[in-house]
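Aim 2, interim progress. The first record below pairs a target sequence with its structure tokens.
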Amino acid sequence: MNLGRRAALFVLNHASLLLFAAVACLFAVQSAAFLRWDNFVNILIQASSAAIVATGMTFVLLTGGIDLSVGSIMFLSAAIAGKILLGNGSVALAFAAIVGIGLICGALNALCVARLRILPFMATLAMLFVARGLSLWITKTRAMNLPDLVQIGAMRIGGIPFPVFVMAIVVLAAHITLRHTPFGRHIYAVGHDPEAARKAGIPTGRVLAWVYVISGACAAVGGLVLLSQLGAVSPTFGAQREFAAIAAAVLGGTSLFGGRGNVLPGTLLGAVLMQTVESGLNIINANPYVYPLITSSIIFLAVLLDCARHAQLQQMKRRKIRMESGAAA
């Protein structure tokens, strides 16, 4: 491999880290307040919910699928939890309901994708509308204020803010699962070549089913963390979170084509990068109407980088095959 191609591949593989360094330097020059320790802690806190949802999305993307329903699952689980709390139910029951709803929605997605063979895009798009419609019906399109939950969101566990603590547990558990368990290796195998994985004896249907269940559970936990921060469930709760989750995972190096990526540091760094941009824009008092444009640009950049990475890897693979064929001849 020549030096230019090696350098290009290095940049593509470490794009999220390089972008993070560039963004941090840019905002540090614009405002000294950006470099304060409490600002970095705040970035981690604000990125926690997105990182948790993106972690579940990473499992799905690694199999070559996609889950467009995560934002609506966040809304549905939060809406049901809000109803429980407003009905004098316990916080523990509300939190259990959140996780349960996430698992049920994920299982329904799994049924459609793994058993009924519906395309992941269509199956999860349908769940997006069903879950959001149910949420609006449950809330009557009115905001539910839950100020008691803010106390939970503001508390610290061992000196670590509650949202960061939950994020760390989810990300670490996902990292161990993907890197150090047979199930994790099966996920990569299915994403790399489903037919070869099936012939190798891997239960591809079961693997596909479980990644959507995991994605649903992560979406619900992400909704729990967001709810504890906001202390309210509004009609726009969780809206468009699916796009942020996909962007964070892809920025972190997870391929939309499947079989390649990681949660730690990949997806986590991608989520922190997106939140760093938003926090930096807020610190320098940028026009709020610019925020959606910046976010859409980040999503476009994430997809562009993934396509470039995939093209480079495919070119290297073809070159390797030609070299091996030539050697054999």
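The second target in this work package is listed in the same format:
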Amino acid sequence: MADLKYIHSAELRKNWSNYPITYQMGNIGSEVSRSLKWTAKGNTERAATAIDRALELFDFTISANCNNRPRLRELLIAREEFCDYFFGNNSWHTDPKKMQKYYDGFVMMAQLHPKLAE
């Protein structure tokens, strides 16, 4: 079996579960934003790398929150919607502006309440 190749550093992977959910989701949101931006500009290479980074952060976040069923459910739905938008036929009818707004809320919460752990 081949070794997994990670995009993010070993230090970030090791510490990811210690970060507040607002931080985790805000970072996913940054990659979602980049994915949307580069897709709109037609830069498929940069869009693909941003999508890959977003998916890796989704996976880290899902793993870190697997014992919180309501949160896990929301994370899995968010990842599915993201994948459907970029790889599927957009059966969720996702509006990119609304998707960005969802993640922006986490960024704002993290900025307003930096010590908020939950």
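The first helix runs from residue 10 to 15. This observation will shape the mutagenesis plan for the next reporting period.
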